[in-house]
Amino acid sequence: MSKPTVGIFGLTGCAGDQLVILNCEDRLLDLVALVDIRDFLMASSDNQTECALDIALVEGAVLTKKDADALRAIRKRAKLLVALGSCAVWGGIPAMDRGMDRGPMLEEVYGDAGAGYDSQAAQALHEVVTVDLNITGCPIEKEHFISAIASLLNGDAPLYPKYPVCTECRMRENNCLLIERGLPCCGPITVAGCNARCPELRVPCIGCRGPIGDANPASLLAVMEEKGYNREEIVNRLRMFAPQGAPQ
Predict the structure, then answer these.
(1) What whole-number distance in Å separates Cα of residue 85 and Cα of residue 210?
(2) Which positions ≥6 away from 127 have C-beta within 8 Å?
(3) Please, what's the b/e burial string for 70-90 (b: 16 or more CB within 10 A of its CB; e: otherwise)?
(4) What distance in Å separates the CA atoms of residue 163 and residue 213, rounded to the nearest whole number?
(5) Exposed e or buried b per residue across 159-170, where buried means at least 16 C-beta atoms within 10 angstroms of its C-beta
(6) Which of 184, 195, 210, 226 is the least crowded, having the fewest Cβ atoms under 10 Å away?
């Protein structure tokens, strides 16, 4: 039986999720033995840029017409499209300004040349094409990527946590940074999967994995205001990685 064909792509972003894949180290050889990676520019200069793909993994947000055209072309090639990382899943940090008038911003940064730039408000992949699977994180977790590939090869949908980072904090017996120390922690509304890495080190969660399905940012906003934080500062913090789900 032939191995599934795979392509790994990056739109506008930091390429951190692709680096996580390359940093799978000893597992990378096992992965290559199970799938046929046909198109992965970060890893190889010899790519098949037009072949059909069983699985396409795409990181980054859509910030330009070029991004949108590239994403649509990838979607046509792939039977299954996976959004890789918080920018691809939620729009990420690039989407923080999506409610602002882009023209004046481009002019302020680039002067008269700004009007000629291919630039648009950031979009998550699902806002442009149909996405079959999301692997969130900034960057993604190695274990989530490996388990996703293993599940897909077995014909199953990967299972990821649907509870908040707060639950992982309790599992690890961490004291609550928000309630007990008054720090602006986004753990109550952020999807778990990182093993509460930041709160474990007494660093408040900034929500980089995106919101849980039943997130209540308005409630978290009220708690943070009770702790003395400025509303605008809190809203900007909650909008950092998934601006469309944050309170106004």
Answers:
(1) 10
(2) 62, 91
(3) bbeebbebbeebbbbbbbbbb
(4) 9
(5) ebeeebbbbbbe
(6) 226
Choose the CATH number for 5-153 among 3.10.560.10, 2.30.30.100, 3.40.640.10, 3.40.50.700.
3.40.50.700
Q: Look-up: residue for tokens 């009220």?
A: 222
If you write DSSP's letter for every residue of the chain in order, what string do you get? -PPPEEEEEE-BS--HHHHHHHTTTHHHHHHHHHSEEEEETTT-S---SSS-EEEEEEESBB-SHHHHHHHHHHHHHEEEEEEESHHHHH-TGGGGGTTS-HHHHHHHHHGGGGGGS-----B-GGGTS--SEEE--SS--HHHHHHHHHHHHTT-------SBHHHHHHHTTPPPTTTTT-----GGGBB--STTHHHHTT-----TT-B-TT--HHHHHHHHHHTT--HHHHHHHHTSS-GGGS--
Q: Which residue ranges does the chain devote to CATH 3.40.50.700?
A: 5-153
Single-letter code of the amino acid located at 152: L
Handedness of CA 22, 24, 26, 28 (dihedral sign): negative
